[in-house]
Queue: 3 jobs
Job 1
Amino acid sequence: MLKILVTDDIAKTGVEVLESLPDAVVEVRTGLSESELLEAIEDADALVVRSQTTVTQEVIRAARQLKVIGRAGVGVDNIDLESATKRGVLVINAPDGNTIAAAEHTFAMMISLARHIPAANRDLLGGKWNRKRWVGVELRGKTLAILGMGRIGTEVAKRAKVFGMNVVGFDPFLTEERATSLGIVKATLDDAVAQADFITVHTPLTKETHHMIDSARLRTVKPGVRIVNCARGGIIDEMALCEALAQERVAGAAFDVFESEPLREDHPLRQFDNVILTPHLGASTVEAQENVAIQVAEQIVHVLKDEPFEHAVNLPSLSAKQKENLSPYLALAEKLGLFAAQLAQGAPSGIRVTYTGDASAPDGGYLTRTVLKGLLGFQYSDDINYVNALRFAEESGLRVQEVRETRGRVYTNEISLSIETENGSHHLSGTLYSESGPRIVELDGYPIDMPSEGVLLFTRHKDQPGMIGRIGTFLGDAQVNIAGMQVGRRESGGEAIMLLAVDRSVSTDVIQQIEQVDGISMVRAIEL
């Protein structure tokens, strides 16, 4: 008899899917204390949660026979993925179920903002009749900047086109071909922000997107712009936005998500009549709740029946032999993808992954999925997992090619990655040292030897005396300590590269200072 434990409220239709599994008992027990959860999970084969239950290392350790954890939604930050993976417990989510709900809520916020609907409603309920005060603007003919052209951003774009809006899209993986197919214009982040009448964000919250719209960018917006955030709190600097609202550079804002939730009572966003606030309702529709519940329930049933499944956010099930063969290369593959994401500039159009030696053993494309998870996950975070990485690459117009060779040119076992973007191409290779772990051993044709971990600084420059010292001076002045260095060149006085391992993140200001040095052609800060 299988036991499925449901500890958060999910739609009844999802529970019914779980109950359809023969020889399964479904226990719905919401509001459990930590001690009650530890007891209830002991004999459970599957656990279903939303955002209320926190699945900690202790919870996973207490589960003697747990096979799968299902999150009825997208984000899995309330689940200890590392502990689940170490215990061989699958974690699956429902990434598609609330796409339409989130897109429609975004559009509802945008229309309400344009026509002052909440404020006019409050006014009228207060006994007033102020037709002249609440004159709005039309969407038709306005420019909408969509920052993040994933599933939800794409759906927003479709609706905006129907309303006669001019849509510009920013996304690191948006190609000209895909933009044309969507009927939108591809733009850089700065250009999109500067020309927009409306701005809406649809990116995950990562180190790169945190405060993506900050005080500096808000000084570049078109006067009278309106800003919508139904994605993640923290993408827009709330304090900087309040300042821009107070100065009337921004005509209004609509937020469904916040840096700290629930929104505190004295938050300055509450003081503005031209700000619309909703309590994280983007996925709160009957249909969306049913969709995510059914989606995650169906996948749990597939897992428990040992059938093919989708939407795993950690390691899918592998045979013991596959695990033994692949495990040394998984970290290397993901690090190479993550490195490439930060090295390359512009939307990638193609990627070729070459495996040699033991790494070339047939694996059903698993290592390539891992490379793509690193590459795409840098920008899209939780939206990318081992199962959907290939599909996401295909939808983004990214051509993926695998090459398998029995022998490497230099190293017996090697993974090499070549990536093409609209701004050029890059090549990097990695291998495993028995005692040192994953290493980067080639970068754009230059041999190097550096651990694939930590914070790295890459430069391409003219091979001339004093270059290394000048870069080191900038880092020293910024209190950034150098832990290791690799240099490569083909000929004296020609082009050279340098890869530095440093003890902490390198600020944008320092990067810009290094870029101004005569003879420097490229600088990249890379965190693995």
Job 2
Amino acid sequence: MTINQLEWQQLLPNTAACTGQFEREYRREPLNIAITQPRLQKSLHTFCHQHVTASPFMLIKAVDSRAYLSLIHDTVKNIQPVRSEVFGSRYEINNAVISRVDAQSKSDNFAATDDCLYEEWLETEQLFGCLRKHNDSYTLEPGLIHKANGGVLILSVRTLLTQPHLWFRLKQAVISKRFQWFSVDDSRPLPLSIPSMPLELKVILVGDRYGLGELQELEPELIEQVIYTEFETDLVVNQDEDIVTWCEYLNSVAFHYQLPSIDASAYPSLINIAVRKSGDQEKLPLCPQLLSHILSDATPFAMPAITAQSLEQAEQEKLWRESYLSEMVLDDIDLGQVRIETEGFVIGQINGLSVLEYPGHPRAMGEPSRISCVVHLGDGEITDVERKSELGGNLHAKGIMIMQAFIAAELASDQQFPFSGSIVFEQSYGEVDGDSASLAGLCALMSALSQQPINQQIAVTGSVDQFGNVQTIGGINEKIEGFFDVCNSRELTGSQGVILPLTNIRHLCLKNEVVEAVKAGRFHLWAIDHAQDALPLLTGLPYVDENKPSIIGSIQERITQVAGNDRNRLPWALRWLNWFNRG
């Protein structure tokens, strides 16, 4: 049995031991991904220096935004081999006749102008160039592939997937090492014949997993041959030097985006904000867009450097701007429009925790939900009302079935289980999915079977397996804060709290109100690793005990009573058998 009542120090990342690292003088240097992305750095180096017979394509799993493309571009520029020859051509138009010769200097109209270029979104003419006619004269305009000829072109996978004709033409040109001119309008051929030109180009394609997956389905053989790597989203913190690395990277981001310097007092707050984003106390995010937004939000309050106070002001203002919807949700609970019990003991009812994500809203919100269970004599079937009404998703249904399997194993008997029941999320009017409420549902069902009431001052979150082990769930901070806000608006009693999975401790990074309440003993968090640890906290009875009342004992006693009553309900002609049973 493992029940850990958490101390307030466990609710935030431990930054006290890093004071020395925060006091260091960090130089404001250009952003260099090599310190945080060694795999990406090495892969780019290999790609830029590989033999000419290797695949001219490379895939990078990353956000295909300008910020990421720019970082990859800067890295490639630093590691590319120096070019001495001129790549490209010179086109001349005389009397509506176009001729081509190899470029002799960089001033030629179709000579490469750069050895590495990138673009987030482009159209056909931007990529491949075009032939334009004005009055009776013609001009040829180069595209990106001409300007980067002999070098590297960095493009978004999303751009090519939404415009498949771009991808097929680009692939053909890169693989054949020759660019064939074509008309942008398929219904109108080129008015002049344009000689093709040699092309020596490498292409880096950047996209998320879904985009790369679509490309893999489209080009399975091509993808097998390319170099693949990823922009790592987080820095794993295993030692003090990792904190130093992150602080250096953070200062480089500030320098890159021309943001104010960072004061030593700001680092603990920055780590707290970062952990909220990564969802793990041992991981710090590396997304340059995210970090620059955090710093830029605090810039108006920075005088002159970004401090802990300026970050706090920025976070409070941002929370205030975005809190209208969460305030309306809390008001509905306070007014009784959404029923949530936070006092007393009730059989078969429990406070589960969920995370709401509304379309278009930037912040996920935690909200308690009432889960209820009723049981009656039956054939052992547990009805999932959400599933029956087609409001429950597949993961939710899986969680309910796992919960039933655990109960069947715990109450193993040669006889058929004599009870049926139903479980429902009260006042849920949309689809319910995920298995993070399976522990709460299990506790409600055990309460209904044992007829032992549950303390309504405690909320529960966590998923369970068939053996009752409590497993990690997502959105733990939002869920705890959602229940805390409800309890706080009704006044904290000192007995309220949340039961959560033991494995979720490393994901905790709670707001100051919750931390202070736990510190003062007015709110509690209990971390458990098995379902049998939750029920004693909720009911005050041991899970199983041969010498005094317990949850399992109460259920077995009730089953025995039902079995005895069944014997008394024998048909009239066979009731004489009960006379022998009394003996």
Job 3
Amino acid sequence: MPFIVDLTSGNVEKEHHPGEIGGSVLGLRLMAARTPAGLDPYDPRALLYVAAGALGGTAAPGLAKAVFLAKSPLTGVAGESHALGPFAAGLRGAGVKALAVTGRAARPSYLLVQDGQVSLHDASELRGLGTAATTDALRGRHGRGAHVAAIGPAGENLVRYASVVTDHAYAAGRYGLGAVFGAKNLKAVVCVGEAPAKGAAEVADPGAVAGLAAYYRDSLATNPLAAIQAGMPGFAGWVGDPPAPGYAAVRNFSVTGAHGLRVPSAADYDGRAVATTGACPGCPNDCLKVYAPPGLAERRTGGLGQEAFLSLGWNLGIDDLDTVLAANARCNDLGLDPVSLGGTLAFAMECAERGLLPGGPAFGDPAALPGLIDDVAGRTGELGDLLADGAARAAARLGPAAAPYAMTVKGAELPCFDPRVQPGIGLGYAIAPGGPRYDALEHDLDFDPVAGLAYSFGEARRIGAEPAPVAELDAERGRRTARLLRLWSGLDALNLCVFASSPTRPLTLDHLSALVTAVLGREFTLEDLLAAGQARLDAMRAYAIREGGGPDELPARMHEAPVTAGPHEGAVLDRASFEVARAAFYEELGWR
């Protein structure tokens, strides 16, 4: 039952959708039904959807996510981003499961969600503030327990990859949802109250949920990936030996051999932890930790995702940890997606190196990074304005010679895990109808018969994803990838956390079914989970086709420039094999 909010008129009404779980599938249906084809993402009629749904915000492992959804100003198709942390619980505690927002406020404003009611309030004095100062000001007005989803200057300035940041550190980063907030003059959504009678996250079978939580807690010591997530410095704290050449992006995916860049040691994180526990209510894994260098003016915004070190570090030719941590915190405070920012800066650096962007930035220059971030967020100067639109649009403005260096799919910058080494990831990047995401499906290397995570093979087999050598690119790779994408799409549709779930994390397929059943009080099966995943993918694809979304293709570099050293030497995505795998992917999902 979403609240439909018209920012232009201030009107708020409830709308009933019986049988809907209320995650992204409902949001996609509302977008398709309530907006005309071809609508500009910044048009006041565009729809913005924010939801915890029936599961998000429940005090249980893997149920902390909130979804943010709108037509993306970066890709022109459905942009879906998820925020971990406590915001979903705050939305549910305030008595609301979902908001569908249209219109444009006459002045900078915020939505207050309190005790099952939604109202619009002036935020003119908050314009120009970062997400941390905005959150502080709104908590000063509505209480320290308020939960806040806010944008910073990047969203106000319509940077096409602006993010929404919840509760200081937990970003809904990809696809420019912060710019949609900005176009609507919506500075924040504020959630106040704990009202079980009005929709907070009660569960049908508390005993079953408690049992699953105890199992999950015990699994943290035995599941390898969960143990890394829970430990220090955590899943996003890259430490130890450098990944093999070709595994991760270096200098805009242009260097696939020796590069001389280092990975931090665990000791490098000493003194940099801001908050390392308690991010997600009900989940003991603490996989999203907050780090920032000592002495940084605003450290609370340093929520560290797994991609930050690669996107703001190696992909820019930088390996200094403090530079990366400071850049990540600054991105969150300004409201910028680190992945798209890193990909756009890397594009500009390669263009400058090749003489296509005179005076542009250079790889391996940590001192220049803070100024570049501020210029993009403020659209300051010609370069800042150029890069604020993302690599694909910047390439179009620079001319045809720059196009090969925009590492984008459907207009969105690639995540920094190289698809040449993991072709299933490449298929997921190319075909996922909302654009490329590194967490859209589990990585190929995990299912390699020799190097993979053998404990996960049984779970993968249950959905038809047999182990296979990581380098194989054939029709079966296409089918396997589609099945994995469908599974994780089901998790996204229900706001279940992929970092807690099958096939490689502690919540197995049976645990997930039992968890949903225990929360909702009605039987939920693996078939239901996969059906939800298929429904979400079908809805996203239908919307992409309606809006004329970009082709299901990767940058030419992935097909033409092989890895040049190390255990993956020679890895490249053969075009003919990729087309065979893509056709099998479509067939598995019933797409033509």
